[in-house]
Amino acid sequence: MILPIVGYGHPVLRKVGENITEEHPDLKQTIADMYETMYNACGVGLAAPQIGKAIRLFLVDTTPFSDDEELEESAQNELKGFKRTFINAKIILEEGEIWSFNEGCLSIPDVREDVYRHERITVEYCEEDFVMKTEVFEGLIARVIQHEYDHIEGVLFTDKISSLKKRLIQKKLKNITEGKTFQDYRMRFVAKKGR
Length: 195
What we know:
Layout: E1 5-6, H1 27-40, E2 45-47, E3 57-61, H2 73-80, E4 83-105, E5 108-126, E6 132-138, H3 139-152, H4 163-177, E7 187-188
Parallel strand pairs: 1-7
Antiparallel strand pairs: 2-3, 3-4, 4-5, 5-6
Organism: Flavobacterium muglaense
Family: Belongs to the polypeptide deformylase family.
InterPro entries: Peptide_deformylase (IPR023635), Peptide_deformylase_sf (IPR036821)
């Protein structure tokens, strides 16, 4: 089922997600709905707070990035095959160079900004089988994971930009909060005015 994506300004986007267990109600259905919702919105990642649930769950599928002709073929192949569900994730190490990339977010439509992140991360997490794993991720995959991980920590990519850039996008953010934005996917807003 395609769910509405929570828009900027909603309090759930600022909550630190709680760890969950295998017994979490309707977990398999929630994960399936999140994938369907993400694909419907043409996203490469989606976190549970974005569907209104303050739990430590997010998913990533970097396949759309594999179409970027500026990337080397090996990078395209790596991105094409990467699809993962992250439960109770914890980034235990960030390392390598800090690099900039233009990011957007399904909860903040029509806003894109350059964000600096580490090139390599080590993450402890469970997949749907709840077996704990520790893995190292690099490049665009690491970036998408860091972006989604921020969501379960109550952090948005707009928190990582300069105060000048924040001022420049303030009107857009206010419009999103008020539901004065149009996109091709369902959204839920804090306050809907003028519609």
